[in-house]
Design goal:
By secondary structure, this protein is an all-alpha fold. Helix content is 76%, strand content 0%.
Length: 233
């Protein structure tokens, strides 16, 4: 049997190994975040074509070989940029929807929280939703593993409102008589459309007639009315 001193030494050695592993993980995460920040700067300042791994490595102050340690390809790097934006936005929407009092309010929360998340950072919106169109056909190809990571984010945005509407419609159909998940998706599309128009006109110094707050409130009222119980037969 090990002596007490040997057991204590073994515990100390294990604690040191765990500490070293934690420091390596923190350095890895920090370097990874620096690379993603550098890639975002290159993409936004120079465009899709200029965002090569060489350009990102230079911007990050590291070798291309070092960059490959973190990201195996340009596509993998772009995916992580897009995923990071979508994950932050999806969690923000989920948290607001969770506080909604009913289905109609949950739909309004999908619209409002999406606009609130992206309106101050339209570059993030363009990266997440328009990059593939701007980059051209074939520029982005996600593999099955990447799609498996993206799809749960849809549930973060839509599932809460859809569940609330579903529970309410079991008691009494809504006025719009639209399937709950589709209704939640339509609310999300409304926010995406608002942001697309905002991003289109603002660089031209020709803002929309209505403010973000007015547009969001209009959508809130439309979806609240659609989600309200229909008339009794």
């Amino acid at each position: 049997m090990d002596s007490e001193a040997e057991r204590k030494q073994a515990q100390q050695d294990e604690a040191k190994r765990a500490s070293r592993a934690a420091r390596r993980a923190r350095r890895h995460d920090h370097s990874r975040a620096e690379i993603l920040a550098a890639a975002r700067r290159v993409l936004l300042s120079s465009g899709v074509a200029a965002m090569t791994l060489d350009a990102v490595a230079t911007e990050a102050g590291m070798s291309k070989t070092g960059l490959y340690y973190y990201f195996r390809s340009k596509e993998a790097l772009v995916f992580e940029l897009v995923y990071g934006v979508l994950e932050r936005q999806s969690r923000a929407v989920h948290d607001v929807v969770a506080r909604a009092a009913d289905g109609g309010e949950a739909l309004g929360a999908v619209v409002g929280a999406t606009v609130e998340a992206f309106a101050p950072q339209l570059d993030d919106f363009r990266l997440a939703f328009l990059f593939g169109q701007v980059a051209g056909a074939g520029a982005l190809r996600w593999d099955a593993e990447q799609f498996d990571r993206i799809r749960p984010l849809n549930d973060l945005v839509l599932a809460g409102a859809a569940a609330r509407l579903g529970d309410e419609q079991q008691a009494r159909p809504s006025r719009a008589a639209v399937e709950p998940r589709l209704m939640a998706f339509l609310a999300y599309l409304s926010a995406i459309g608002l942001l697309t128009m905002k991003g289109l006109v603002e660089p031209l110094d020709d803002p929309l007639r209505y403010s973000d707050a007015e547009l969001v409130e209009g959508f809130r009222r439309v979806f609240a009315a659609a989600a309200a119980p229909g008339r009794e037969a």
